[in-house]
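RECORD CONTENTS
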Amino acid sequence: MDTKILLQVAGSYFALSLLSFVAYAIDKSAARKGEWRISENNLHLLDFLGGWPGGWLAQKFLRHKSSKPAFQRIYWVTVVLHCCLLYTSDAADDSLRV
């Protein structure tokens, strides 16, 4: 993979992970205050789009959504789907090279 593309991918993962971590933190704060919450679907979407490392860190360090089995199941499905999509897109890219 070209270094420029690799840096763009790494930067995208960092930005999405940071966004996901912040979303989890905002949701946890809102939950404590009884305020409007970020929907679980939106948290899962951020994780699926590539923010799953930040989502995982938020679950561990903020202890948010880590004890909800239904959320955890969907979270890990989104991680696996994201990784499969990334792998298949990379494999398709490799097959197009001559």
Remarks:
- The CA atoms of residues 28 and 64 lie 6 Å apart.
- The mean pLDDT is 89.
